[in-house]
Amino acid sequence: MTRPWARSTYRSDQLCLSLSTFRSLSVPRDAWDSHMHVTDPKRFPISASAAYTPHSATLSEALKNASNLKIPNLVFVQPSTYGTDNACLLDALARVGPEHGRGIVVFDPTKTELSTLRKWHALGVRGVRVNLNSPGSKKYEPAALLEQLAKYVNAVRPLRTWTLQLYIDMATIPQLESVVAELDGVKLVLDHLGAPRELKRPLSDMRGWDGLEKLMRRPDVFVKISAPYRISEDPHYRDLERLTKEFFSIRGGDGVVFASDWPHTRFEGVDVRPWVDRCLEWCGENESMGEKLFKDNAKQLWDIK
User: Which element (helix H / strand E) includes 91?
Assistant: First the structure.
């Protein structure tokens, strides 16, 4: 899917944003991009069961994007198009190294040995992703979903520093309370601003918001401030200000991490820099909020020493 304003010819100045407003703001040094992907079909074939064919997005291209954003540290997230074959991600992570990289893999909790998870851990993997919201994602009845998520929590708990990362419709989030109660050292991460089906005011009118807000008050639950184009119809992202700032306010901003969602699968051509600038603007003069969003919370979440 591509918004009319998100084509390959897109330029940030076409948004008519007053970027001069943001010139005094900058991404903190040693920042982390907590959600991006690499796909390299020539070296690592796409899964035969993939719901769509992604564009190539190689590690060299990812590093160029990171340099442009001045965000030197990357969290590689397994895209749905590779299924449970994490070879491309693990290759990229090994080449970047654990000093500047982390990984979120996909695996079958009934078939993957703890010894395999430990090997991945040594490379910098710190979590498993369960994608329930992309095209072709498996659908679960509520009871079956909770049972499946509990299997993942049990699988990664022995590693002590791993996360359970969910891309899930916000309306479903209140159902997660029983899983969250049993995390016991595993952190829960929710993708893409909690993935609301639609934006509403007040926020409490959005299905699932009250449950999400309740979960976010726990110290082991985080939300990625990412992928605004998957939610917003406004190229300026003004309709996301209230939601984003509300996330900033919960736990004093300790539960949010910035992410680019590069290469913006199914929204190719997006320039994420205006979103970076928007986030910096919404941090306002609170320098510590910017540090938390782009660096400090990520270092805690991803076990960065």
Answer: helix 87-96
Q: What is the pLDDT of residues 252-285, one digit of tens each?
A: 999 999 999 999 988 878 899 999 999 999 998 8
How big is the chain, counted in residues? Answer: 305
d(CA 188, CA 104): 12
Rounded Cα distance between 145 and 126, Å, is 22
Residue written as token pair 């695996």: 107
Determine the Cα–Cα distance for residues 33 and 102; give it in Å rounded to an integer: 10
Comparing CA positions, the residue from 192, 183, 212 lying closest to residue 257 is: 192
Global pTM value: 0.90
Strand pairing category for 221-225 and 101-105: unpaired
Integer Cα distance of 131 and 305 in angstroms: 28
**Would you say 101 and 93 are in contact if contact means Cβ atoms under 8 Å apart?**
yes
Q: Which value, in Å, is the radius of gyration of the alpha carbons in the chain?
A: 18
